[in-house]
Amino acid sequence: MKRLKNLASLITRPRPPVGTTPADVVHRENKWRLLRYRPAAGQTRRFQTPVLLVPSLINRHYVMDLLPGKSMAEDLVAAGHDVYCIDWGTPGDEDRFVTFDDVCDKYLGRAVRFVARTSPRNQTHVLGYCLGGTLATIHAAARPEHVASLLLLAAPVSFADDGPLAAWTRSPQFDVGSIVQGFGNVPWQLMQSAFHMLRPTLTMAKAVGVIDRAANDEFLDGFLAIETWGNDNVSFPGECYKQYIEQLYRGDALMHGSFALSGIPARLENIACPVSCVVFEHDNIVPWQSAAVLVDRVASKDKALHKLPGGHVGAVVSRAAQKKLWPMMSAFWAERDGALEPKRSPDPKSAPPTAPSSPRPKPARATKSARTKTKAAATG
């Protein structure tokens, strides 16, 4: 009876209170802003080094602050971390010529430097999710001096996989120049359709799941919150998207060592800070191998790969994530809260190397490694 009642009330059910953890806007520029989450009464900031959350460009930031009692940001603040988050905002027609360098170097760089200044060692931990993780990786490879550590969630660095997205963007019929010329900013509807292409039956599977679990109010609230976020999409600045497709998807420039950020080589081998790479076994958007390969390429001695069950979104925002992933992230930062050696940026005058002729290294395997200092074993 309750199942039927809940199903009947879905249309009139109140909108879930997404993104409601109290936060102050501490910096604002163009469309993006930098949020700093406030501790609740009785909570204190226990750690010296702040944490900067970097979400994807094409989805809203509040996936990291989904619901009260089910919020990554809320939990991290409660654990004593000083948590900041970038809200990329909504690009307008005038942002059609915003470049990849503008986003990854200027915008992200200013956020990193702003947050780092609040720390005694002038550094911040950086967490990047999905494309936000790719941006964080590139920035750390080119400008490492203010990055205390990198924690990456399903962040692609290799784009040479055989998945539908890679095949679509490499197709001669996918004329990214004409798309940008015709639309300016790339419409979110186009990108959303591409994601639906990955799992054509997903809508039906969701409907079956809702019917089966409709009697569970907590499930329904979480489901509606994720659906609210998943359908609250953002168009992609045109010039930035063009560079993203041509250099990363088609050129696989990060893996070939030929990517540059504002003229500075962004080689994965430049990254020497502690790195924790989290991938998800059933991720149909970012195949786990395309993210895991990072661990074999960075110069960090303190690095670990964690392969967890779940999909691209559910594994990050679920109750299981709240019980395992989020505490693991908090522990990673807590164990590395002491002072580190300052890093220097690579010489901007050195030209990016040509693509190597040797075979690409195999993706990292999600197993324990004697090279890592992190004790948490990768699980499958």
Q: Can you identify the CATH class of the domain at 19-166 and 253-334?
A: Alpha Beta
Biggest sheet, spatial arrangement of strands? 1-2-4-3-5-6-9-10
Rg of Cα set: 20 Å
CATH architecture of the domain at 19-166 and 253-334: 3-Layer(aba) Sandwich
> What's the helix count?
15
Unreliable sequence segments: 339-343, 348-380
Find the count of extended strands (DSSP E, 2+ residues). Answer: 10
Description:
The two termini are 38 Å apart. Helix 4 (131-142) links the parallel strand 5 (124-129) and strand 6. This protein has 15 helices and 10 strands. Helix 3 (100-116) crosses helix 4 (131-142). The model is unreliable at 339-343 and 348-380 (pLDDT under 50). It has a domain at 19-166 and 253-334: Alpha/Beta hydrolase fold, catalytic domain (Rossmann fold), CATH 3.40.50.1820. The strands form 2 sheets. An 8-stranded mixed beta sheet has the order 1-2-4-3-5-6-9-10, with helices on both faces. By secondary structure, it is of the alpha/beta class. It is globular and about 65 Å long.
